[in-house]
User: What shape does this take?
Amino acid sequence: MKHSSGMVYRMVVLLIVTSILLVACGSQPAAAPAEEGGEQITQVGKIGGSDRADQEYVWISQFSNLPLFVERVYPGLDAFARDFGVTVRKAGPTTVDLAAYIATVEQECARGPAGIIVVGGWDPALTEPVNKCIEMKVPVVVTDGDLFQSNRLSYVGTDWYHLGVVMAEAQIREHEALGLTAGQVAVISPIQNENMQLSRQGIKDTLAGTGIEVVAEEDNDSQADIAAQKTAALMAAYPDLTGMIGLDSEAGPGIIAALDEAGRSGEMIVTVNEAGREFLENIQLGKVHLITMENYDIMNYLALFLLYTYHNDAIRTAGLDPWINNWMPQSVDSGLVLVTEDTVGDVMQFMLEAEEKSASEE
Assistant: This one.
């Protein structure tokens, strides 16, 4: 009797376990059918899953079609959209129009997208619209210049103070290489931009006590033609000027245009920020000594990853709602690429191949 009861008991247990396993297997997300050609199978609820395909993320800036953005920002945004199976849209005025930029941020937030990237370095006035987005519980990550007083969830981008330090260090090296124990340098950048203010402070702090003096800081309003005009005026006002520093993408072309016009190309120590692949040729021509390149592709891909993870509630610290306990890092330094005479050939070749590949895929 005991043997018979034990056998029945074991059979009942086996049936129960089998039923549980069948139910568990049946509750798993169903895999989407593979496409012809052996494409990777996606699952609902996973990266690239069909239930996430309607998620839209928006990158917003003024001067949104700036060639530098098109060449260096857009590829990172497009890569994320491709890799994660979501939509990443570019928005914002195509001119330098702060009022229109602020209005665009507010309008996009009102639509309730999955997440927004705001290019914050333009002006601290962007703080208020970013805070409005957060109040509406629209996730916002700021890039390419922080908004320090805003409630953005994170900043992913360049450490602009460090960029200024790098510019100043290059000026020091080049002055020493020429046997100069003193010098006068001028800085051209958009004056009101918080990120540019940080860079200018980094320059002055690094040059302090070196004998190299910052004699002028001029505003180019993010326009190359204004940068050229200001450079020409500086050369007239400071005949002993030994160096020029350009901090935004339009300052460099303006500086070089003015030096070419005055027949002084190669006479000054010039350190500037990037302005596209063709501008890099100025290093090979001896007109520029250093070009800093921001890691735009990295900063925007990482920013979108943070927003995607946040929106899909993939991570919770101690089980707390992210809107109560924001888990995002306060800031992420996306770093710099330093282009010099030694590295310019490799960088130009890479950018050329990337352009050709992009053109062939269109």
Remarks:
- Confidence is low (pLDDT under 50) at residues 1-39.
- The longest strand covers residues 212-219.
